[in-house]
Design a protein that fits this description.
Elements (H helix, E strand, L loop, with lengths): L10 E5 L4 H12 L3 E6 L2 H13 L3 E6 L5 H15 L4 E4 L21 H29 L2 E6 L12 H24 L4 E8 L8 H4 L8 H8 L13 H7 L11 E4 L10
Parallel strand pairs: 1-2, 1-4, 2-3, 4-5, 5-6, 6-7
Helix pairs in contact: 1-2, 1-8, 3-4, 4-5
Length: 271
């Protein structure tokens, strides 16, 4: 069983920690006693999340980081290790889609810009791999640690209109399984790699796809709710419990798992 405050004394690094899901996870880790380092490409977002955690009585530091910049990630890792002594938890929360890489009424698949496809693919996949290399090296030296990736329902089922995002999130799920085996066989069984696969949340990134200008659900939004047995979008705070479990001792025999947190979406085929 996981106990309250079990993460006390642990150091958690959350990439994309200024985002909707990342900030909720960072706050949840802090409530369980972890010292949380918020990494985000936008310093203002990092600081906002860190300030909120500190105001709630937690411990948090904010750093600016582009997860695709390996040299910058290595500098951040060295700073964190010097300042806090270890990295016990890594949550790879950086990711997302982009309108330019999305099929729409005005942009067909055949016209998707290569640069936009590359940007989404690199952000989600390489943005997971690079921090795992950098912070995972610290865990390898410690012989202990927990890495949590953020997959997606798109990791299981291709979703219409977002080919780059779907392909990248499929890669994240596959990489999670690969890395889990690699760390166990080559480093230590005490370095575990898992992922959560969120269902549909209404965020600023996807609002244009799910809600029309009139405030009503788009056909896509209605279809998502109709094929989600709970009949609604998830909330960012509902992603936190699975992450806390995966990085706790209660999950000491769990690695290579991709856990759906989706209101039943994956389990239901609409009939």
């Amino acid at each position: 069983m996981m106990e309250r405050g079990e993460l006390k004394g642990k150091v958690a690094v959350v990439t994309g920690g200024g985002g909707i899901i990342g900030s909720a996870i960072a706050a949840g880790l802090a409530r369980e006693g972890a010292a949380v380092v918020i990494l985000n490409r936008t310093q203002e977002k990092s600081e906002t999340t860190a300030r909120r955690i500190v105001d709630e009585g937690g411990t948090a530091l904010a750093l600016t980081l582009d997860v695709l910049d390996r040299a910058a990630a290595e500098r951040a890792a060295a700073w964190i290790r010097d300042r806090l002594g270890s990295v016990d938890i890594l949550v790879n929360g950086a990711g997302g889609n982009h309108p330019e890489a999305t099929v729409s009424e005005t942009q067909s698949f055949f016209d998707l810009p290569t640069a936009a496809i590359r940007r989404v693919t690199e952000l989600n996949f390489l943005g997971t791999v690079i921090p795992t290399q950098v912070f995972g090296r610290i865990m390898a030296e410690q012989k202990t640690g927990s890495i949590i990736n953020i997959a997606s329902m798109a990791s299981y089922h291709p979703l219409t209109n977002t080919p780059a995002y779907c392909a990248a999130k499929s890669a994240v799920a596959n990489f999670t399984e690969w890395a889990a085996a690699y760390f166990c066989r080559n480093v230590s069984e005490r370095v575990r790699v898992n992922a959560i696969a969120p269902g549909f949340l209404l965020t600023e990134q996807n609002r244009y796809l799910l809600v029309g200008s009139d405030g009503e659900d788009t056909p896509r939004g209605r279809a998502i709710k109709e094929t989600t047995p709970m009949g609604r979008y998830g909330r960012p705070d509902e992603m936190v419990g699975a992450v806390l479990y995966l990085c706790s001792d209660a999950a000491s025999f769990v690695t290579g798992a991709v856990i759906p947190v989706d209101g039943g979406f994956r389990a239901y085929w609409g009939a």
